Structures are given as C-alpha cells and as structure tokens.
Amino acid sequence: MKIYRILLSLLCLLPMKTYSDSSEGPDVLPKFMNGNIESFMTWIVGHAKYPWEMYNRGIPGGVLASFTINTDGELTDVKILEYTEKILADEIVNSLAASPKWEPAYKNGKPVNFHYTVPFLFYNPNIKMRSK
Fold first, then answer.
1. Which residues contact 23 (CB under 8 A, 6 or more apart)?
2. DSSP state of 105
3. Which of 34, 91, 110, 131 is deepest in the core (most CB within 10 A)?
4. Are 2 and 52 contacting, i.e. CB atoms less than 8 angstroms apart?
5. What's this model's pTM, rounded to 2 decimal places?
C-alpha cells in the first residue's frame, strides 16, 4: 500500500495528561529542540504518514499514546492506549521511536522522568467527516 505524508491533526484542544516521577511535579518541563510539547507536535506532523487509501477515502482515525522522556532525554516506554486502526497505531509508534533527544525535566536541579499521554487524529481536511 502506498503511504503518503499526512496532514496529521493533533488534538491539542483535548486535555493532555502529564506527570513526573517527582510527586510535586518538575521545576522545569522537558524541552524538545529548544521548544515545548507544541514543538514536538509540529515535528511529528512532518514525520508521521497517513495511509493513502484511508486519506483518499476520507476515513479518519485516532491514536492515544503515552511515552516517557527519561533522565537522559530519550523518548522511551511508548504505549498505545487506544486506536481506531492498527496501521495508524504502528505509524505513531514508528514516528515516536524516531524522535530526536529531548532535554529532560528537572526537579531541584536533577533530571527526572516525565510522562506524556497524547491523542493524535488522522483525517483529510478536504473531505467532510461523517457523523453518526
């Protein structure tokens, strides 16, 4: 199946869950390429691919993923919590695995693990999404 670069729309309006290994939360959040989670979302839009057949037919799909930015700044512990299509879940796993290093979160001057849960939505904005 031919795979094309997607128009991956990230559901930034939905609540994104975060937590750290520090009970009070970090003093400094993780940084991605000198930015924050929004910088990462922009990066992943350029790396995830939407299967052409789904895109062309206007079939939307979603993936809910969690991952950890560890104390070395590596994106680890990727888990797919929910998905509508396995091919989309696999694409998010592959895209997350290709992430460059982050700057870790810090608490009291020491790096700490930081966990994200992020929703991703695949859809073709040129085709009206069907409602049930």
1. none
2. E
3. 91
4. yes
5. 0.80
